[in-house]
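Hi,

Apologies if this is the wrong queue. I'm a grad student, and the batch job for Galactonate dehydratase from Halopiger xanaduensis produced an output file that my downstream script rejects. I'm not sure whether the problem is my script or the file. Here is the sequence I used:
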Amino acid sequence: MEITSLETIPLEHELPEGRGLGDARGFGRTRATTLVRLETDDGLVGWGEAFAPGSIAAATIDELFRDDVIGMDPFDVESLADGSYTDPYHFGGDVFVQSALSAIDVACWDIVGKSVGRPIHRLLGGRERETLTPYASTMYYTAEDRPLEEPIQEAVEEGFTAAKIKIGADPETDVERVRVAREVLGDDGTLMVDMNGNYRPHQAIKTANAIAEYDVAWIEEPVPPENPSGYRDVKAKVDVPLAAGEAHYGRFDFKQLIDDRQVDIVQPNLGRCGGLSEARLIADMASTENVAVRPHIWNSAVGMAAAIQFAASVSDYPHTRNVPEPMLVEFDRSTNPLRSELLEEPFDPAGGVLEVPQEPGLGVSIDEAALARYRADE
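Support response: The file is valid. Your script probably expects a header line. Output copied below for reference.
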């Protein structure tokens, strides 16, 4: 079996004027990503996602990957990551190289799973998980005026028992946002906060200490990803676990996070970290050092499918079945048809449970009409 076709498909959706949303760093109206479609000589099709702009992803794939991928046996997928670091030399750590690699890698795993009739999480060595616990990413900063509690109230009404909210614009207002979220979610709900790297260490520490009474499960990106000393400063002064990884790319970035004990939780994004092959190495490193793994997901439905398959494979170490700490997976609650419309059977987090597809490969089928509707190159 060999790969005979590689297609890059840019996708885009723009929110209406005045409906922008975002984080402490600002608002945005455009959701965009790039899919990769591989096909083999025996007709198997694999899908992957490069969480990067279409023109850049396509150019990177054409320049660095296409010649090696066409004619490749999909079962050789794990050689792609090594090759990205060594040929061409020095390019492997670049975000766009890792994003392009992610898409091709996941698409190859999709084909491999389909060829042997197994879901990817079983190929990665995971136990046969059937469900995961979704957490709502909500309470974004928005351009429109709406009640602060409304988004998280909607998530609770959908059945979510865990949620992550945006803070980081001002230590004074952070406390009110967390207070409202905890009140709506209830004492038994799992609450996380995301600062999106918008603070200096002393600001992050101030907020972390001020919100400690609200039982926060983790603080995500308290300082910028390029500020490792800042992570160490924050970690030394707060008791709340720290999480990061959405802006880290490849095994070597994550090794530094893990080895230097900068965080308690690593969050690889399957559309940027190097794909499933790199994510498995990252999870092994994290497990060895007793660091938790929780994938970051702000992707299309294809990236979400990859993250769910990956999450279902991650080890529970050091927990036994008698220590309940569910595998949490992010479920963005903003408007995003690239997530909600792209599959023939969209993921449904209602009731606070997310089913892990048990069909071969990624276990999902693309809705071709929706794909055509959101293509950015037509």
